[in-house]
Amino acid sequence: MASHRRPKQPSRARVTVLTAAAATAVALSAQVSAHAAPAKPSTDEVKAQVDKLSEDQEKATETFNGANERANQLRAQAAQLQDQVARGQEQMTELATGLAAVAGEQYRNGGIDSSVALMLSSDPAGYLEKASSAEQVTETQAATLKQLKEQQRRLDQQKQEATEILAELDRNTQVLNDAKNQVQQKLQESKRLLSQLSAADRAAVMGDRASRSDNRAALGSLPPASGYAAVAVAAAESKLGHDYQWGAEGPNVFDCSGLMEWAYAQAGVSLPRTSQEQGSVGTRVPSLADAQPGDLIIFGPDRHHVGMYVGNGMMIHAPKTGDVVKIAPATVMSINTIRRV
């Protein structure tokens, strides 16, 4: 009779080792999966991210434009005040020299008059209080000291104003640098995202860089503008196909507000530098249906973009980095306000 032997059961220790090894294998597999290269974003995902970065970059650009304009104003004010301080100091020196000449003459003639000594004291501002009697001060001496006292007051005031303006310039320079850094960071991040796409997909994300002739064809038959608005519209049309460049005011590259500023300057009209400020010029137009060629259309709740209405529901604008001055529907973004210059 054949004997039937039960299969040998693995020892409990061996089962434990095998179980631990399996658990380790599962953990290692999970770690490998966790550290595997993430899937590349789709074209639509990249487009959404690049569009958001472009909007953020334009906001930072307008902050930069405003800070840069203010910096230029502050530098001009500081230079003017410093010039005034220098001239005031010269006048103070001349007055003090005149008083010293009087004192020198009196010394050579046997002594310094008490009134002159008071005028040359370390506290000339207190001279008139001390020289209370007519005997102590002549009319000429009093007039000279009043002039010296007023000049000192103006000089102190100008020095204080210059100090405050230079301090504001320092603060403004920090804002300027921060905005510039933000723009550069947004641009670098956009480039990084676009580098993950093929050339065809990158072109699709960035949109059509319409040529100047293509843009002119898109204009079609537009209603005529009048007055200086007509000059501004013609100037903007002449820049169709020119590159966008952040912070640029022309004459060959532009950002959105720089194009508006340059175009109206050709008509002899001075616009403020930023889209936020341009959103307050002139008079408000109730709606797009009431817009006329030359009107400024300001976009976004924070007024970070601007275009120029040219009729038939279309505008000319400088859209974003990598794009050109072009024709686009005036409803391409949310309209904040429309201004007639």
Kindly list the characteristics that best describe this protein.
single chain; 341 residues; alpha+beta; endopeptidase fold (from Nostoc punctiforme); 2 domains; six-stranded antiparallel β-sheet; 10 helices; 6 strands; 57% helix; 8% strand; elongated
How many separate structural domains? 2
Unreliable stretches (pLDDT < 50, length at least 5) are: 131-137
> How many β-strands, per DSSP?
6
Overall pLDDT confidence: 80
Q: What is the helix content? A: 55-70%
The main sheet comes to: 6 strands, antiparallel
**How would the global form be characterised?**
elongated
Q: What is the topology?
A:
Layout: H1 12-34, H2 43-108, H3 114-119, H4 127-130, H5 139-194, H6 199-206, H7 212-219, H8 227-237, H9 256-265, H10 275-278, E1 283-285, E2 296-299, E3 305-311, E4 314-317, E5 326-329, E6 335-340
Antiparallel strand pairs: 1-6, 2-3, 2-6, 3-4, 4-5
Helix pairs in contact: 2-5, 2-6, 8-9
Describe the structure.
- This protein is of the alpha+beta class.
- Strands 1-6-2-3-4-5 form a six-stranded antiparallel beta sheet.
- It has two domains: 158 residues; 133 residues, Alpha-Beta Complex (endopeptidase fold (from Nostoc punctiforme)), CATH 3.90.1720.10.
- The protein is elongated and about 85 Å long.
- Strand 4 and strand 5 form a beta hairpin.
- It is built from ten helices and six strands; from the N terminus they run H-H-H-H-H-H-H-H-H-H-E-E-E-E-E-E.
- Helix content is 57%, strand content 8%.
